[in-house]
Design goal:
The protein has about 325 residues and is α/β, with parallel strands linked by helices. The protein contains 15 helices and eleven strands. The longest helix has about 30 residues.
Length: about 325
């Protein structure tokens, strides 16, 4: 029995390292081949991902807010599938500013990425959803069950590991049961009730799943971390921050204006966002004002992620002072 447990633990540790390697390898490859083209002085390229957590960024783009705050600027936008793609683009000098969750940012920083956080963007409900009535806690998930989430090293993965450590005493308990799926595919797989048992997801998919009969939440993001946290933060490369200070300041001002607009005018914002999401104006307004959904430049939860990821060996660096991670530290945990 002891021997089997040792073998299983060894297998899990191998899977955790393999999972993180999947994130590291693309970075290493690009580091060796990067030093690629850099943007001209009056150009900034901004990368985002999919989902309502990025709604202020979409508004900034649609309303040309950045263009109004600085003259003669060429703003380029990229919508990429995941954080790994954004990291590779930033390493290659193809993207100056990217939006992502805190854990993949920390993994990139740990592996040598020269970037820091600009500000928070959104806080959001996240949750582990299932259709199985017999699964009410993490302890009810068997070794045969499969859990869909965006990728190893994602915020969903790290939150699951946090909860697994607290509730089961093993942070990487589920690391060899993860299935990498984009959120739309994960939701479809969950609703089909065949390939996966649970889906760790974010808006609007968590809202849609929670409205489906028979689907319930096992774990929330706040339960996993033990408090509020930033779901998405904006990140800028060191080169951009040092060499494009005027554009950087205009970007920060524009982001603040976009966040204030969506908070003060959710109905109008929903109308502007309908062309970018496969949702009605009414659905968007309902989702962007859903309890727990918040757009703010504050940065929250960074310390908790750092402490856990260091202890569980998802990151190795001990040099994780706030001044090494955030360009403007006064935004951290500000009320």
């Amino acid at each position: 029995m002891i021997g089997r447990e040792v073998c299983r633990k060894g297998s899990i540790n191998f899977m955790k390292k393999a999972a993180i390697l999947l994130l590291i390898i693309p970075i290493s490859i690009v580091i060796l081949s990067s030093c690629a083209s850099k943007n001209s002085e009056n150009t900034v390229t901004i990368a985002e991902q999919y989902g309502l957590a990025y709604a202020p960024v979409q508004l900034m783009k649609d309303k040309n807010i950045l263009e109004e705050n600085i003259n003669n600027i060429d703003v380029k936008w990229k919508k990429l599938a995941n954080t790994a793609a954004i990291r590779e683009a930033m390493l290659a000098g193809e993207v100056d500013i990217g939006f992502m969750a805190i854990p993949p940012f920390l993994i990139g920083r740990d592996r040598g990425m020269e970037w820091k956080i600009i500000s928070g963007l959104s806080m959001s409900p996240l949750g582990l959803m299932t259709y199985r009535k017999d699964i009410k806690t993490l302890a009810d998930i068997s070794e045969n069950d499969r859990i869909a989430l965006p990728q190893p090293g994602s915020i969903q993965h790290i939150l699951l590991a946090m909860a697994a450590e607290r509730e089961l005493g093993i942070a990487d308990r589920f690391d060899d049961q993860l299935v990498t799926m984009a959120h739309p595919d994960g939701m479809n797989a969950l609703l089909s009730r065949k390939e996966i048992t649970a889906h760790f997801t974010s808006p609007p998919y968590i809202f849609k799943e929670s409205e489906e009969e028979g689907i319930h939440q096992i774990l929330s993001g706040q339960e996993a971390l033990g408090g509020e946290f930033s779901f998405v933060v904006g990140v800028a490369t060191e080169e951009f921050y040092n060499n494009q200070s005027e554009i950087y300041r205009a970007f920060v001002k524009s982001l603040q204006e976009a966040i204030e607009f969506i908070n003060q005018n959710p109905g109008e914002a929903a109308g502007l966002l309908t062309e970018n999401y496969a949702l009605s104006e009414e659905e968007i307004e309902k989702y962007i004002t859903w309890p727990g959904m918040s757009y703010t430049m504050d940065i929250r939860g960074l310390d908790q992620f750092i402490n856990f990821m260091q202890e569980a060996e998802y990151i190795n660096s001990k040099n994780m002072e706030l001044s090494q991670l955030i360009w403007e530290v006064d935004l951290y945990e500000k009320e």
